[in-house]
Task: structure prediction
Amino acid sequence: MDPNPKNFPILSYVMTRLPTMKRPPTQPDFDIEQPPTTPRSPSKPVSNPEPYFELTERMPHLTDPHILASMHAAVADVSQTRSLLKTLGDRPDHEAVDIAKARLAEIDAMLSNQLDEISLSDKVDPEEEKRKKAFEREKQMHKTLISLDQMHESYDKLLCDAEKRLEKIYESAKVGGRKVEKIDEGAVVMDDVNEEVVAILADAMSNGAQTIDLSERRLPFLPEAFGKIHSLVCLNLSSNQLEVIPDSIAGLENLEELNVSSNVLETLPDSIGCLLKLKILDVSSNKLDSLPDTIAHCRSLVELDASFNKLTYLPTKIGHELVKLKKLSIALNKVRNFPTSIGEMVSLEFLDAHFNELRGLPNTIGKLSNLKVLNLGSNFSDLRELPDTIGDLTNLKELDVSNNQIQELPMTFGRLDKLTKLNVDQNPLVIPPKEIVEEGIGAIKVYMAQRWFDMLVAQEEKNRREQEALAQASWLSRSTTWLAGAVVGAAGTVSLLMAGENDDPYLEEER
Result:
């Protein structure tokens, strides 16, 4: 929960100098935005370098104790919130939050119905009261989960605001000490760029343009009027400085291809879900920490590239809607889990999720019957196993699970008949053993297929023994029942004979 020095350099620097915020000397967890530095040669022992040396060189006033004291006071709220969240725990998964919200709505509806029934009845049912209390407890549990998620979201915004406050404090101190003015090179060309964009916009609206390419023009924003070019089919805004996409983009009703890669976008507008004809969407290399839920409404999507962002999850219902999607790339993000709905992407052929923080795959992954390429490499210590349903990917040709912590390939692996390319490097594999892996993919498939076969034979033998045991128990039960019946029958016969002897007329004859 510490501010990432890559995203919040000043805030991170200031907070590490708070008395209660000293970083421990232990090795930090791997962070995709901060790859580990190459260790120095042991022959040249040196003391640990100052991690913020480059920052203090660039911003020398940070070492001023008076400025640092002002900054400490400015981030007190961040420090307090961080301590609280550290006590409450990590942010819950997005899917868990969505489920909690849905369940909360169900409970409210049920309680409302119960209230209506109670108001019409004079009697109080004790069982209904117990159920009501149980619902209230469950409701409180879901509210707590949702509140925790909201607190984490607020904390993220708090970090951004704090960084901006610190930047202002530093700029004020710098100007107060020595007035330094720096000319923004981009401002020199901005007027020319604006004129050019306006000209392109006017021409497109008058001529009904279908394609517009505004890539690599250092655009800081996109005019709202772009939403009026209803004829537009292809729009390329890559490699600019866009921070937002206007909501008016919803007006591009015929748009089929949108490229906004390599900008500085932190969010996408909800109105993107109105692009019902959109087939190709490239939002890679931005600063997105989530995709809007409405992206699932873009049901014509065939390709979606959201790689190299800060995504921690995918929308819960994304798979239910994007059934035409063939290519999904979310590489170089921080996604921890796939939503279970991903199994509904029945057209998916290519899935790239390397360099994330995946902790596992949902069993529904096996429903992707058309998947041909699956890249799960470099999820490092987070990914430890693959589900057995991986064997249901009968059309899979390429699989990369390198640089993870997988010890055993799933038992069903041998069923991947079309697999021709496999990368399992840098895993502590035990099954299959190293010597089999070194022989290549053919040997691995044979080994795993044989292991699967042996397991089936063993299971069949176990079932046979269980059936024999049940049959034996059934025979003994029937034999015991028959014997008991025979004994009862024999006893009845003896009783009748004895009764007959007592009734012998000769014995009753008067003497």
